[in-house]
Amino acid sequence: MSEFILETRGLTKEFKGFVAVSSVDLKVRTGHIHALIGPNGAGKTTVFNLLTKFLPPTSGSILFDGKDISREAPAVTARRGMVRSFQISATFPNLTVLENVRIGLQRRLGTEFHFWRSAKSLDALNGEAMALLEAVDLTQFADTVTAEMPYGRKRALEIATTLALEPRMMLLDEPTQGMGGEDIARVVELIRKVSVNRSILMVEHNLSVVANLCDRITVLTRGSVLAEGSYAEVSKNPKVLEAYVGSDDIADAHH
């Protein structure tokens, strides 16, 4: 096991002459919860799209557990254990919560195309699926049609379907976006719980969530790394405060 589960070296992405991500060196320690923050348009989503192979880099490299994965197919990277939650948020709205988690388990078993297999063979996955629902506190919703679930609980289901793939590293894209306080608190606790024995990289706008949850923070602005450190270090950095003026006030997130 490498000290850093994920590393980028000089990661760069240009779109028709516009540099969206410029020479980003990112190091995520194994077992850490690492946040990527920055004002809108800073390049956070592009970095995520590069990491998960939705986009090829213009230059630079990506290492996962010490191996260069810059040019490999998205599915291969996912099988290594780096999974972006909400990339499969193809939770199926008309299926029950339990059925959705079961599909996640099928993916891992490589039987995703065997929908014609008897329901019996799927029942074998029920125990494992229920255990995952218990882990994300959704047991009481097992038979609920997903579309009818409250928004915050849908996010918990997305995390459960990601966990079904047994990721070593989870990439969470704005996990608390659009949520009220109670849902946010629940999702923060959930992320803390699922981070045991795995590494997490998250893009998050809500700075009090970041302050609460993350071991280390990288601040991006205009596609480049502006600062990196603990929340305490980053939130006092004059360059960071300046970058955030007029958007989320980073100094207020403590309170």
From TrEMBL:
Pfam families named among the record's database cross-references: ABC_tran (PF00005), BCA_ABC_TP_C (PF12399)
Residue span, ABC transporter domain: 6-247
Keyword tags: ATP-binding, Cell membrane, Membrane, Nucleotide-binding, Transport
GO molecular function, one term: ATP hydrolysis activity
Keyword Kinase assigned: no
Gene3D superfamilies xrefs: P-loop containing nucleotide triphosphate hydrolases
Top-level division of the source organism's lineage: Bacteria
Annotated GO CC locations: plasma membrane
Protein's name according to its UniProt entry: ABC transporter
Organism of derivation: Thauera phenylacetica B4P
Lineage: Bacteria, Pseudomonadati, Pseudomonadota, Betaproteobacteria, Rhodocyclales
